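Box 3.1. Reading complex inputs
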Amino acid sequence: MNQAGETDFDTDAVGGAGKSAPAGIAGMKVRGKLNADAPLDKLVWFKSGGPADWLFEPADLDDLLTFLAALPQTVPVMALGLGSNLIIRDGGVPGVVVRLGKPFSSVEVQRDGVIECGGGASGILVSSTARDAGIGGLEFLRGIPGTVGGFVRMNGGAYGREVADVLIDCVVVLQDGSCVNIPAADLDYSYRHSRLPDGAIVVSARLRGTPGMDPAAIGAEMDRIAHAREETQPLRSKTGGSTFKNPPGDKAWRLVDAAGCRGLSMGDAQVSEKHANFLINTGHATSADIEGLGEEVRRRVSESEGVTLEWEIKRVGRP
Ligand SMILES: Cc1cc2nc3c(=O)[nH]c(=O)nc-3n(C[C@H](O)[C@H](O)[C@H](O)COP(=O)(O)OP(=O)(O)OC[C@H]3O[C@@H](n4cnc5c(N)ncnc54)[C@H](O)[C@@H]3O)c2cc1C
């Protein structure tokens, strides 16, 4: 078992930092930014929720490894991407939230249709870099507003493709400050799920597309995806993407609709009129409003449709 309480991966170690005595988080020396009681609401799509006990934005990989190696193992660690699939509860997040910013957002084209991406790179940057290099098969990432780290954890997907189809491997920093390379096959991917341990941070990933394609055709497909999303999803709202997983053989939005929940609200939280599987914050909704509305939808769908919807949005932190 590793520190995250999960079975160890059969992986190649690719780096790590030596253990040093924890001096208390406030006294820890970092080169990036480390702030106590740091607001997270501005950093997530729902624009709600409480602060992180600590928010760490590492300067680079070494900074992250050194910090985690010195951090007491009892302190919880959570990665944050663009917060596009998250409800941060109103009481805030215990421990350390790690946000990979610019130092982790590079995207580089390698040989044979392989693209190496930082864990903080956005889906748009990955898909447009692939397009410019004539690499097809990654267009679907154009429409998913998140980072590579979030995609790898959530097995993000759209339009019939998902990360499991294109991921070769990823480099992951574990909570003890060790760094391992995990092949895609070891992540046991299923629909919007991987077995990445809690607290593990994806710092980079290699994706494979199809080389030698026409950039204009790839661009046209990306435009089609962007347009289709604009038509069907509340992209300009404060939201968290698909709220519930599609149950086998059905669509979550159809069940929410059938249970009469489209437009239902709780405080300033509302089931989107545009897409019934999206919750939106129409003003100053608290995370309790948003999560409470989601639970009410689950209750009504279960009562009227006999299906228990499973949350796709991750809900984290103290109520
Ligand atoms: C308008 C809209 C449309 C969307 N459409 C889709 C869609 O079509 N398909 C789809 O799959 N999703 C969709 N989503 C949801 C969301 O974009 C994806 O789940 C995305 O993968 C989340 O990425 P993120 O970086 O923002 O992660 P966050 O929302 O910040 O975090 C989500 C989870 O990933 C973890 N995480 C984040 N970064 C890392 C990292 N570096 N290492 C390890 N774990 C990490 C977090 O701890 C958390 O558990 C949509 C969301 C919105 C708002």
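In summary: The CA atoms of residues 164 and 259 lie 32 Å apart.
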